[in-house]
Amino acid sequence: MDFDLTEEQRLIIDTARDFAAREIAPKAAELDKTGRWPTEIVARMAELGFMGMCIPPEYGGGGLDPLSYALAMEEISAACASCGVIMSVNNSLFCDPVYKFGTEEQKKNVLTPVASGQKLGCFGLTEPMSGSDAQTMITTAEKTADGWVLNGAKNWITNGPHADYILVFAVTDRTGGKVRHTAFLVEKGTPGYTQNARDHKLGIHAAHSCTVFFENCKVPDSAIVGKVGEGFKVAMATLDGGRIGIASQALGIARAALDVSVQYSKERKSFGVPISQHQAIAFMLANMATELDAARLLTWRAASMKEKGVRHSPESAMAKLYASEMATRVAHKAIQVHGGYGYSTEFPVERHYRDARITEIYEGTSEIQRIVIAASVLA
Ligand code: CAA
């Protein structure tokens, strides 16, 4: 693995960091407070090519490598974790699988507007009674003479209230004691496909999620992504990439918490000196920086394996597991460095703490990452 970033990758960091500092960071507290969907930021992320970064230009994307995507995700998430996950779901959970498994027609008609950011995508795997054990989903798609009829509900659908398309997974076959799933593309406005009001959550307030419903929702055969009966593999392969995006989001949150802690520790005085001169504080900062770097290396390794096209399930799981738990630890310590002010909404660290927590849950809990890692350790 080459640790030197290319000129292009450095440019992506600079572009994303500059954009995030000018146009996202000043609004992050307001977005968190109001839970407003950041329409104008999503539009600017589209203009900058951040909504389909690894998709080839002929399908509306940036034609970049997964490490470039991870770098941009860290920058956007350092400014606002909500904006980070909006971007991550569109890139990793929608564009990637449609590009990898979709038909030419789907790539032209659906992927191109979503990768260029004119339209928005979301991913429907989780159900009210089926989260970690994703194969137990009960949403069905029944074959008819001219297509399929979907029935069921999917919840925690990030981007769901605003998405133009959903990539949804349904059971299509239960014969022979084996459950087989298939992936479908459904467009907003298709009769029988509805969304309810957005969820209310601990953090990432501006990244809206909701439950979506399929009631006798008819789709044509051309809505199938990948092969009939192989939808679960589409979902799992997609999450191998998605977990790199969430690991990068966690890096961004932790970096923001560390940066503001370093700055505060140099300004705040106690016992006659800046608190950074107390070893108790300096050691906290040292641990935070070390853990952040370790998580970044795991994330960059997973991204570079994805670029090489080799299976990277355990590497993505390690990156997501370590980065997400690290982000919670770092944000926790950031509050400690700030003392009482850290607990106040006047400072950003309590937001970082709330935002970090979800990274240990979505796209597979820490426990699911350990299952994936253990399977490779014990193989
Ligand atoms: N790539 C390709 N195929 C894969 C794969 C991968 N990474 N992982 C598994 N498969 C294949 C297996 O080879 C197997 O194929 P065969 O049937 O041909 O043998 C099949 O898929 C089933 O695999 P498992 O037996 O390992 O499946 P399992 O039922 O034991 O589940 C699991 C494995 C890891 C626990 C999985 O259910 C899982 O990842 N659960 C968590 C789900 C999750 O992450 N949900 C997140 C929702 S999205 C989200 O959160 C979005 C958001 O809001 C931001």
Walk me through the structure.
This protein is α+β, with helices and mostly antiparallel strands and 379 residues long. It has helices at 7-34, 39-47, 66-79, 81-101, 104-115, 231-267, 279-308, 313-338, 349-358, 366-377; strands spanning 121-124, 140-144, 147-158, 165-173, 180-187, 193-198, 209-219, 224-225, 269-270, 273-274. A four-stranded mixed beta sheet has the order 1-4-5-8. A four-stranded antiparallel beta sheet has the order 2-3-7-6, with helices on one face. A hairpin with a 6-residue loop joins strand 4 and strand 5 (180-187). The longest helix is centred in the middle third of the chain and has 37 residues, at 231-267. The mean pLDDT is 98. Bound molecules: acetoacetyl-coenzyme A. Acetoacetyl-coenzyme A (CAA) is lined by residues 85, 89, 93, 123, 125-126, 132-135, 156, 158, 232-233, 236-237, 239-240, 313, 362-364, 368, 371-372. The site of acetoacetyl-coenzyme A has 25 residues, from helix 4, strand 3, helix 6 and helix 10. Keywords: FAD, Flavoprotein, Oxidoreductase. Belongs to the acyl-CoA dehydrogenase family. Residues 6-118 form the Acyl-CoA dehydrogenase/oxidase N-terminal domain. Residues 229-377 form the Acyl-CoA dehydrogenase/oxidase C-terminal domain.
